[in-house]
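in:
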């Protein structure tokens, strides 16, 4: 049995930063994540993708942000249980919960912070009959390393931020980039839309709207993507890679059976301290919901900061909370 002060379910950026804020209050943390390494989606899905809304960083690669967060929390020596899914939550004392993973690891603490991002997720796949035959043989649903596509012909499908952003990035890497979308308007950020339009006007990418992929051809590996455009006959486009970026289908998984109040596949919280309907259980980051919720890493950092203040008072109701600025004491002053 592992004993700690706060069990953090999810080792993504919000979960990692929460370790830092808890450490300033001398609260120990243990993180559980189904993925085999810390970082969540930043590590697993787009480690080489730049992020633009982290204060103090005009641009930082997702993987570098995770590296910096790990360095930031190192003085507080958090525990990690990786490659295991949080399966069961039990109330094992007046102020004690025990979380059991699907592999039988048990961790106990007075406080549980659920920072599971989108929860368990899988990519939304286009309805192409033989698509599974080409998975990892030309069809990718996520981009981990853009260098994989250097000098290749790439066809991206989608109309959201991921499809737009990766089309922009790959325009300088791939031999040829084609972006297809079912509509003429896009759902992504206006700045990204303008960049894509500029690239298309300058023949840096091929942009095909009112179109969708309906078939794939190849002998063991992808060779062609069949595109059907409104009012036109299907056309075969030569492609080394087909990347449909239609987002992820989030599922709460076992967390949905823990007695928490759920709304639209997310955990309802009180914005005073991001507590749930269960005492001592909090939810921070993309997995929670409340009026005005924004699913940004920045917002998750804020939520984790307020959460640990409340957690300290919950664990030690008779102790006065004396919070010091790190600019005064420095991190080593809290070890």
């Amino acid at each position: 049995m592992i004993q700690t002060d706060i069990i953090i379910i999810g080792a993504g950026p919000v979960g990692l930063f929460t370790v830092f804020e808890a450490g300033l209050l001398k609260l120990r943390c243990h993180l559980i994540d189904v993925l085999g390494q810390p970082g969540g989606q930043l590590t697993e899905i787009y480690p080489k993708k730049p992020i633009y809304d982290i204060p103090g960083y005009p641009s930082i690669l997702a993987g570098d942000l995770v590296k910096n967060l790990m360095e930031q929390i190192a003085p507080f020596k958090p525990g990690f249980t990786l490659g295991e899914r949080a399966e069961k939550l039990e109330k094992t004392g007046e102020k004690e919960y025990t979380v059991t993973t699907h592999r039988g690891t048990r961790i106990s603490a007075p406080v549980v912070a659920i920072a599971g991002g989108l929860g368990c997720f899988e990519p939304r796949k286009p309805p192409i009959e033989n698509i599974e035959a080409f998975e990892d043989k030309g069809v990718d649903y996520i981009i981990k390393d853009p260098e994989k596509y250097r000098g290749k012909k790439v066809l991206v499908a989608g109309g959201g931020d991921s499809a737009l952003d990766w089309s922009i990035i790959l325009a300088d890497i791939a031999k040829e980039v084609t972006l297809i979308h079912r509509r003429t308007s896009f759902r992504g950020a206006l700045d990204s839309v303008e960049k894509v339009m500029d690239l298309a006007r300058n023949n840096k990418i091929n942009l095909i709207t009112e179109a969708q992929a309906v078939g794939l051809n190849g002998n063991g590996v992808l060779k062609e993507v069949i595109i059907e455009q409104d009012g036109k006959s299907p056309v075969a486009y030569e492609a080394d890679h087909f990347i449909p970026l239609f987002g992820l289908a989030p599922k709460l998984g076992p967390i949905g059976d823990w007695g928490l109040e759920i709304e639209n596949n997310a955990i309802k919280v009180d914005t005073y301290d991001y507590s749930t309907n269960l005492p001592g259980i909090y939810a921070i980051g993309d997995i929670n919901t409340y009026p005005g919720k924004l699913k940004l890493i920045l917002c998750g950092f804020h939520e984790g900061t307020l959460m640990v203040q409340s957690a300290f008072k919950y664990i030690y109701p008779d102790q006065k909370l004396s919070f010091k600025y790190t600019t005064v004491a420095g991190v080593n002053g809290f070890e």
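note: The chain has seven helices and 23 strands.
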